């Protein structure tokens, strides 16, 4: 059974993922495109709220962290 917290977090990370996906396609930025796809898909496979939130925050911050490290 899906809790309301899981549903809300999944919607939030999915929405952010769509924004990353659109940005990555328009700017031809591969990291943003892949991150967007991961943010859209990963909530389907996670059943723990804390793991969902921690992995989602990590994925949202990933393009920013990598761009600051100049990879």
Produce a short descriptive summary.
The protein has 71 residues and is mainly α.
Structural summary, described in words:
With 71 residues, this protein is mainly alpha-helical. It has one domain (4-69). 80% of the residues lie in helices and 0% in strands. The protein is built from 3 helices and no strands. It has helices at residues 4-27, 30-41, 49-69. Helix 1 packs antiparallel against helix 2 (30-41) and helix 2 runs antiparallel to helix 3 (49-69). It is globular.
Number of domains: 1
The structure class reads mainly alpha
SSE order, as H and E? Answer: HHH
Separation, N- and C-terminal Cα atoms:
41 Å
Question: Spans of 5+ residues with little confidence (pLDDT < 50)?
Answer: none
Q: Give the overall shape, derived from the CA principal axes.
A: globular
Could you give a short account of the major beta sheet?
A: none
User: What does the average pLDDT come to?
Assistant: 94
User: What fraction strand?
Assistant: under 5%
Helix content: over 70%
Radius of gyration: 13 Å
- Total number of beta strands: 0
Number of helices: 3
């Amino acid at each position: 059974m899906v809790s309301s917290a899981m549903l809300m977090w999944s919607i939030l990370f999915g929405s952010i993922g769509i924004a990353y996906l659109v940005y990555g396609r328009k700017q031809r930025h591969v990291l943003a495109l892949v991150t967007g796809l991961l943010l859209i898909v990963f909530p389907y496979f996670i059943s723990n709220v804390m793991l969902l939130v921690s992995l989602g925050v990590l994925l949202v911050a990933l393009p920013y962290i990598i761009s600051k490290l100049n990879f």
